[in-house]
Amino acid sequence: MDNIVNNQEHRKIPVIDKIGYGSGNFSVGVSMQVVGAYLVFYCTAILGIPGSLVGLAVSLSIVWDAVTDPLMGYFSDITRSKTFGRRHLYLLIGGIGIALTNFFLWNIDASLPDHIKFTFIFIDILAVKTFMTIFTTPYTALGAELSNDYNERTTIQGIKTIFFLLGLSLVSVIGMYIFFQPTHEYPVGQLNPKAYNHMGLFSSIIVVIFALICYLSTKKYIPLLNQPEIKSDNRLWILNLVASFKSIFSNSTFRYVAFTYMFTNISSALLSNIGLHVFTYTFLLSSQQIAVIVGIQLLVSILSQPAWTIISKKLDKKPAMNLGLFICIAASFIFLIMVLLKDFIKGSAGYFIPFAAIGGFGTGGLFTLPLSMIADIIDQDELKTGKRSEGTYYGCLTLLYKFTQSITLLLIGFLLDIVNFDASLLVQSEGTVVILGLILGIGSILSFAAAFMSLAGYKLNREKVEQIQMQIMEVKKAKSMNI
Length: 483
Prior knowledge:
Blueprint: H1 15-22, H2 24-46, H3 51-78, H4 88-105, H5 114-145, H6 150-179, H7 193-218, H8 222-225, H9 237-249, H10 252-282, H11 287-303, H12 305-315, H13 317-340, H14 342-345, H15 353-385, H16 390-418, H17 430-455, H18 462-482
Helix pairs in contact: 1-6, 1-7, 2-5, 2-6, 2-7, 2-10, 3-5, 3-16, 4-5, 4-7, 5-16, 6-11, 6-12, 6-15, 10-15, 10-16, 10-17, 11-15, 12-13, 13-15, 13-17, 15-18
GO molecular function: symporter activity
Organism: Fonticella tunisiensis
Transmembrane segments: 39-67, 88-108, 120-142, 162-180, 200-218, 256-284, 290-311, 323-341, 353-378, 399-421, 433-458
């Protein structure tokens, strides 16, 4: 702890500890992507469950996930433990729980009746989502506590984003390339049931390893961060919980960022859950070609993190966020054009490189900046209320976007049935493949445009945040002098 700059004005932490903290997001990226990228395809094309049932199961699981996020954040905020602090016990429970439930998710017998397979999927995905919440919400809150420096927060989130994108890459690129190799029995590798079994085991092991790295790297900060200022009356916890949620959602500054984050994640939900359908059936790409495209996009996102840190320092966070949204809209238009020209480019991954590179750079900023902005909003709230509620704030943030994701996924499930997607066919009808591509392209454009409009009302900048922090320090100094 001696090498930690621990003053309330500009608390910074060593780079090695930022990396240790950020490594936990590798577990988050792996667990989210293995479910987000493959589950709908696995259920429809491998298990043969109707798309509407799959959409219903996944949608309900996300509603459950959304509701439990702010609850987990609140309980994390009021947790008291000399050994584990407010956050660290949940890192252990969540990491181990994700690994176990994720393993069982990818080992369901395809020969079972549909209603049995649906029941297993529904119960297991609820369990996976629950343990994700137990890990992710306290983990995200921990990142906001590590530093109160305006630009340092963006750096922490940038490193955290790099690990998240590496987790996505491991699943989407390396996983696709290794586990879904074509065989004589399965020329289309992503239709091989055994590949999903192996991927489930591998991803579960990775989740546990990096959750433990994060826990051990940040454990020394527990004495510094375990500072809940107000003791909670257990008999009144429901009233306190409701009051906390009401205060957060009445904060207009929070709503501007939260709705922006929510809308950008609609595009992520579309790409994650029908992207594999579109690349496989609309553009007739192999698993290796898909891995190359996704790999370029994620690699550019990773490499863009230092650039977004610099852009944020030069322009400030809101203008940088707007720039990221404009770039993503441009990438979505490129993708839409490729859908319209699919007959000329199908089977060739090279045409997708400009889309992947431009989209990767744009989304790089959208991963990092909103979470850094929420940390600033928490400062604003602390000045007003006298307490910090990182867990509850980040829980409420995910509540909003996950509700939207659940609606999006429910619609995707029904749309797969409406457009007559047939898992038994290697080649889908012309109308089916075109509509799937248009849904992804147009839906992404609309989601990014809505995010841009939502962010218009956000007013915080570096100067205002630093003024808020100075006022907080003055209040704390006055309290300490009165003690």
